[in-house]
Amino acid sequence: MTHDKVVLPAEIRTDFGKGAARKARRDYKIPAVIYGHGAEPLHVLLPNQETTLAVRYSNALLTIDVEGKTHLALAKDIQRHPLRQTVDHLDLLTVKKGEKVNVDVSINLEGEVAPGAVLEVDAYTVYVEADATNLPEQVTVSVEGREIGNHVLASDLVLPKGVTLLIEEDTVIATIDEPKVQDLGDEEEEGEATEAAAPADAESAE
Description:
The chain is of the alpha+beta class. Helix content is 18%, strand content 42%. It folds into two domains: 90 residues, CATH 2.40.240.10; 76 residues, CATH 2.170.120.20. This is one of the proteins that binds to the 5S RNA in the ribosome where it forms part of the central protuberance.
């Protein structure tokens, strides 16, 4: 899924430091840096609302208009406020149409495992190579009917055309396991001891 048709207007950033960054955010602007292809990093300010909407999805592809010159860029690193989850800063990697890039893509586990089994997920994303202008939003694998002891491997992932796996095929994505039974033995023994002591306490009270 790409967002390159969304054009974000940017202005050159000339003030730096934490104070300048805080002021920019108060003015509803997001500090960002555009880099890649051997060019000098370009520091810019982006509009808050439009940018926040554009990077809702991972690996967002954006067209940045810097004073009339456009840059096709991939959102590689999004720094968010730990509490408000607002976007504080963006690292944007310049890309070209037809260029391959390496990214982490979300894994979508479809279906239900066999009755009496539970699904233990080991990985929520997978590292792949894909066309920068045609990155998948997610890759899918079915767990329908899988039984206890079965493993979902990276080789089981259904990859869109043009997407290449960059991890070992035998990497475990998920495991189908037995339900974990919580041991309440200590609590039961404590309860039994309390019940046994109750009559004695009642007799002493009489």
